[in-house]
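Example record

Each entry pairs one chain with its bound ligand, X2X.
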Amino acid sequence: MTASTSSISRRTFVSALSASAVVGAPAFAQSGNITLKWANNIPATHPSTIRIKEAADAIRLETGGKVDIQIFPNNQLGGDTDMLSQVRNGAIDIFPLSGLILQTLVPLAGINGLAFAFKDYATVWSAMDGDLGAYIRAAIAKVNLHSFDKILDNGFRNITTSTKPIVTAEDLRGFKIRVPVSPLWTSMFKAFGASPTGINFSEVYSALQTKVVEGQENPLAIIDIAKLYEVQKFCSMTGHMWDGQWILANGRRWAGLPADVQAVINKHVTSGVLKQRDDIRRLNNGLEAQLKAKGLAFNTPEVKSFRDALSKAGFYAEWRGKFGDEAMSKLEKYSGKLV
Ligand code: X2X
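Structure tokens for the complex follow.
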């Protein structure tokens, strides 16, 4: 062993010590207790809640109990529209929300929902963790919401109905469908000739049960975990769009947190999101068989009639005009030309 080797290892040891002083328990002794309210629209048994609960536990542990993130799942604090107001006014600190619903406030945030934009998950993650996601997050920051780096997966969405299978776009003509409260969602189903109603997720099960609407669309994980199969008979694997939830924090609240607290929250939330993405991908790949056993009848339609119907109705042209060329070029770098 040479002297230089041992001095390198001593230096490494010293810098490891000071790194732990930055993110480890001792530094948190300086701050008082911090309690943050995290609310979502997703059942407690869904990976979006489970993985964030784990992250909150890890944060509590690493901060010696100083940072306590309390989770309120399943619309306990209100429906999406209401929770969006609450995260803006500070009644809720952190709230994951579909970019398409956030679109009511940040028009650009709906862009990843343009129908059939993403052919697979590899493309989704390179876009959303890459230039497109960064561009959307910059727009979100302008309305005083902080969005965490990584978006939660919700999944590719499929259409369920209580009345008939959807085989071609023609089957959507006049069809009464629930969509989330979002301009892009409403416009898409209008372009199919359907009759969409914007309803918060908190009301979806009962809207289907009482037949206010005949159907809805969601990824398989949601259809299963929210038990929508109890009130639906058919599932058409349209995969018509990919949807995820941006994790939004009240801008003032986030900016007011000490840097070491932000760093420890970021670290555990990011690792929770990566696990959540893995869970959802596996669920959405494996759930078809389980949902069949629970009574849902599946069909896998040809995508072509749906894409053609949207093109013909001018859906892509309309949204190209609304999002603008710069935003569309960020998306089309990943999706290819959408016409
Ligand atoms: O409201 C929905 O359908 C849901 C649960 O998928 C979203 O959060 C967009």
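The chain has one domain: 28-333.
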